[in-house]
Protein backbone atom coordinates (compact mmCIF):
# COMPACT_ATOMS: atom_id res chain seq x y z
CA UNK A 1 0.00 0.00 0.00
CA UNK A 2 1.37 3.39 -0.92
CA UNK A 3 0.07 6.45 0.89
CA UNK A 4 1.09 9.76 2.30
CA UNK A 5 -0.18 10.72 5.74
CA UNK A 6 -1.13 14.18 4.44
CA UNK A 7 -3.36 12.71 1.72
CA UNK A 8 -4.84 10.22 4.19
CA UNK A 9 -5.62 13.07 6.54
CA UNK A 10 -7.32 15.05 3.76
CA UNK A 11 -9.42 12.03 2.79
CA UNK A 12 -10.28 10.66 6.22
CA UNK A 13 -9.12 13.17 8.83
CA UNK A 14 -12.18 12.85 11.04
CA UNK A 15 -11.46 9.12 11.50
CA UNK A 16 -7.76 9.55 12.26
CA UNK A 17 -5.78 10.89 15.22
CA UNK A 18 -2.54 12.68 14.39
CA UNK A 19 0.46 12.41 16.73
CA UNK A 20 2.06 15.82 17.28
CA UNK A 21 5.09 14.51 19.19
CA UNK A 22 8.15 15.04 16.97
CA UNK A 23 10.21 11.94 16.12
CA UNK A 24 13.39 11.32 14.18
CA UNK A 25 13.16 8.73 11.41
CA UNK A 26 15.61 5.84 10.92
CA UNK A 27 15.72 2.81 8.67
CA UNK A 28 15.34 2.56 4.91
CA UNK A 29 11.55 2.25 5.02
CA UNK A 30 10.21 5.73 5.69
CA UNK A 31 6.55 5.00 4.86
CA UNK A 32 5.04 2.14 6.85
CA UNK A 33 1.77 0.96 8.30
CA UNK A 34 0.31 -1.92 10.23
CA UNK A 35 -1.69 -2.90 13.29
CA UNK A 36 -0.25 -1.70 16.58
CA UNK A 37 1.27 -3.89 19.24
CA UNK A 38 2.47 -2.04 22.32
CA UNK A 39 4.95 -2.12 25.18
CA UNK A 40 5.03 0.31 28.09
CA UNK A 41 8.36 0.39 29.93
CA UNK A 42 10.89 2.77 31.46
CA UNK A 43 14.57 2.50 30.52
CA UNK A 44 14.12 -1.30 30.33
CA UNK A 45 13.82 -3.01 26.96
CA UNK A 46 13.56 -6.70 27.94
CA UNK A 47 9.86 -6.95 27.08
CA UNK A 48 10.27 -5.15 23.76
CA UNK A 49 13.29 -7.28 22.86
CA UNK A 50 11.35 -10.47 23.58
CA UNK A 51 8.31 -9.32 21.58
CA UNK A 52 10.40 -8.29 18.55
CA UNK A 53 11.88 -11.80 18.66
CA UNK A 54 8.44 -13.25 17.86
CA UNK A 55 6.50 -13.11 14.59
CA UNK A 56 5.40 -9.56 13.80
CA UNK A 57 3.10 -10.36 10.85
CA UNK A 58 3.47 -6.79 9.62
CA UNK A 59 2.64 -5.11 12.91
CA UNK A 60 4.14 -1.86 14.20
CA UNK A 61 5.49 -2.01 17.75
CA UNK A 62 4.87 1.16 19.74
CA UNK A 63 7.24 1.31 22.70
CA UNK A 64 6.17 3.92 25.23
CA UNK A 65 9.36 4.53 27.13
CA UNK A 66 7.90 7.53 28.92
CA UNK A 67 9.97 9.85 26.75
CA UNK A 68 13.18 9.05 28.63
CA UNK A 69 16.32 9.67 26.61
CA UNK A 70 18.62 8.31 29.36
CA UNK A 71 18.96 4.78 27.90
CA UNK A 72 18.47 3.28 24.44
CA UNK A 73 15.50 0.92 24.08
CA UNK A 74 16.63 -0.51 20.72
CA UNK A 75 19.91 -1.01 18.90
CA UNK A 76 21.06 -2.77 15.75
CA UNK A 77 20.60 -6.30 17.13
CA UNK A 78 17.01 -5.81 18.22
CA UNK A 79 16.32 -3.87 15.02
CA UNK A 80 17.67 -6.76 12.94
CA UNK A 81 15.51 -9.16 14.97
CA UNK A 82 12.45 -7.04 14.13
CA UNK A 83 13.32 -7.26 10.43
CA UNK A 84 13.92 -11.02 10.61
CA UNK A 85 10.58 -11.56 12.36
CA UNK A 86 8.46 -9.56 9.94
CA UNK A 87 7.66 -6.38 11.86
CA UNK A 88 6.81 -3.34 9.70
CA UNK A 89 8.14 -0.79 12.11
CA UNK A 90 9.01 0.29 15.63
CA UNK A 91 7.95 3.65 17.10
CA UNK A 92 9.80 4.51 20.30
CA UNK A 93 8.86 7.24 22.74
CA UNK A 94 12.48 7.18 23.86
CA UNK A 95 15.95 6.64 22.44
CA UNK A 96 17.76 4.13 20.21
CA UNK A 97 21.47 3.44 19.78
CA UNK A 98 23.60 2.00 16.96
CA UNK A 99 21.67 4.52 14.91
CA UNK A 100 24.03 4.43 11.93
CA UNK A 101 23.35 0.71 11.48
CA UNK A 102 19.67 0.96 12.38
CA UNK A 103 19.40 3.53 9.60
CA UNK A 104 20.47 0.84 7.08
CA UNK A 105 17.84 -1.72 8.14
CA UNK A 106 14.75 -2.35 5.97
CA UNK A 107 12.47 -1.31 8.81
CA UNK A 108 10.43 1.76 9.69
CA UNK A 109 11.85 3.31 12.85
CA UNK A 110 10.82 6.45 14.65
CA UNK A 111 12.44 7.48 17.94
CA UNK A 112 12.84 10.71 19.86
CA UNK A 113 16.62 10.55 19.71
CA UNK A 114 19.74 8.54 20.42
CA UNK A 115 21.86 7.61 23.43
CA UNK A 116 24.71 5.06 23.54
CA UNK A 117 23.76 4.01 27.08
CA UNK A 118 22.42 0.46 27.32
CA UNK A 119 18.94 -0.35 28.56
CA UNK A 120 18.15 -2.13 31.80
CA UNK A 121 16.98 -5.73 31.33
CA UNK A 122 14.84 -6.43 34.39
CA UNK A 123 11.73 -7.06 32.29
CA UNK A 124 9.60 -4.43 33.99
CA UNK A 125 6.67 -3.06 32.02
CA UNK A 126 3.51 -4.14 30.26
CA UNK A 127 2.75 -5.64 26.84
CA UNK A 128 -0.28 -4.82 24.67
CA UNK A 129 -1.79 -2.19 26.91
CA UNK A 130 -3.07 1.20 25.67
CA UNK A 131 -0.17 3.66 25.48
CA UNK A 132 -0.04 7.41 24.93
CA UNK A 133 2.06 9.35 22.44
CA UNK A 134 1.51 12.98 23.41
CA UNK A 135 -2.24 13.48 23.33
CA UNK A 136 -3.02 10.35 21.30
CA UNK A 137 -3.85 7.00 22.92
CA UNK A 138 -2.85 3.92 20.91
CA UNK A 139 -4.44 0.58 21.70
CA UNK A 140 -3.27 -2.78 20.37
CA UNK A 141 -4.97 -3.38 17.02
CA UNK A 142 -5.29 0.28 16.09
CA UNK A 143 -3.92 0.85 12.59
CA UNK A 144 -0.81 3.01 12.31
CA UNK A 145 0.20 5.00 9.23
CA UNK A 146 3.62 6.65 9.38
CA UNK A 147 5.75 8.62 6.96
CA UNK A 148 8.12 11.59 6.96
CA UNK A 149 5.34 13.96 8.03
CA UNK A 150 4.24 12.04 11.10
CA UNK A 151 1.99 9.33 12.46
CA UNK A 152 -1.77 8.80 12.04
CA UNK A 153 -3.82 6.39 14.14
CA UNK A 154 -7.03 4.72 13.03
CA UNK A 155 -8.93 3.30 15.99
CA UNK A 156 -9.68 -0.39 15.45
CA UNK A 157 -13.10 -0.24 17.12
CA UNK A 158 -15.92 1.99 15.92
CA UNK A 159 -16.97 4.12 18.91
CA UNK A 160 -20.40 3.24 20.24
CA UNK A 161 -23.17 5.69 19.41
CA UNK A 162 -23.43 8.39 21.99
CA UNK A 163 -19.98 7.57 23.38
O1 LIG B 1 20.40 -4.89 23.56
C1 LIG B 1 20.10 -3.72 23.72
O2 LIG B 1 19.78 -3.23 24.81
C2 LIG B 1 20.04 -2.82 22.55
C3 LIG B 1 21.14 -3.09 21.63
O3 LIG B 1 22.25 -2.75 21.87
C4 LIG B 1 20.85 -3.79 20.37
O4 LIG B 1 19.67 -4.01 20.05
O5 LIG B 1 21.80 -4.09 19.65
Automatic annotation (TrEMBL):
Q: Which reaction equation describes what this protein catalyses?
A: oxaloacetate + H(+) = pyruvate + CO2; 4-hydroxy-4-methyl-2-oxoglutarate = 2 pyruvate
- Which key words tag this protein in UniProt? Lyase, Metal-binding
Which cofactor names does the annotation list? a divalent metal cation
Q: What is its EC number?
A: 4.1.1.112, 4.1.3.17
Instruction: Tell whether DNA-binding is among the UniProt keywords.
Output: no
Q: Check the record and name the SUPFAM superfamilies matching this protein.
A: RraA-like (SSF89562)
Q: Which domain of life is it from?
A: Bacteria
Q: Which InterPro entries match?
A: RraA, RraA/RraA-like, RraA/RraA-like_sf
**Quaternary structure, from the entry:** Homotrimer.
Indicate the family of this protein. Belongs to the class II aldolase/RraA-like family.
Which NCBIfam families does the entry link to?
A: NOT-MenG, PRK09372.1
User: What does this gene product do?
Assistant: Catalyzes the aldol cleavage of 4-hydroxy-4-methyl-2-oxoglutarate (HMG) into 2 molecules of pyruvate. Also contains a secondary oxaloacetate (OAA) decarboxylase activity due to the common pyruvate enolate transition state formed following C-C bond cleavage in the retro-aldol and decarboxylation reactions.
* Protein name, entry field: 4-hydroxy-4-methyl-2-oxoglutarate aldolase
Whichever gene encodes this chain, its name is: rraA
Amino acid sequence: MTFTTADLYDERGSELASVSLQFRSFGTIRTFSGPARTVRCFEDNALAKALLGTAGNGAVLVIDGGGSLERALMGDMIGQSAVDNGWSGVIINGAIRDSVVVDTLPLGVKALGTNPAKSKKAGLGEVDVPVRLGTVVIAPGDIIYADADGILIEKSAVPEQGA
